[in-house]
Design a protein that fits this description.
Elements: H1 7-37, H2 50-60, H3 63-77, H4 82-85, H5 89-110
Amino acid sequence: STIKYSKEDINTEQKNVSKYLLFEKKFKAFNTWLSENAKSLLKLPEQMTIQEYAELLKKYDSKDGREYIKKKLEQMHNTKYVTEKYRNVYSTLMTWIQMDEDLKKNKLIRN
């Protein structure tokens, strides 16, 4: 028995593949950016996975959001002993973001 696909099914599948390829291209561009701007992070034992990158983009996929992430990654890169203190790029980034949010909350509470 043969499986028949409608034009709609094929178009949907083609759109999904196109979205994935575009996303994969963004992920490669992100890794290229890391290698050019935050090289020391590439020495951490656990690099960001494409799934983690997808999670990151869910929350920070705006121009300001992407700039904020780049700034945090550059700060991590410029931290002395980053390769000795940390193991995982994504976990470290999320921890640093949480620390930022905690600091902002504390400042708001104090003022």
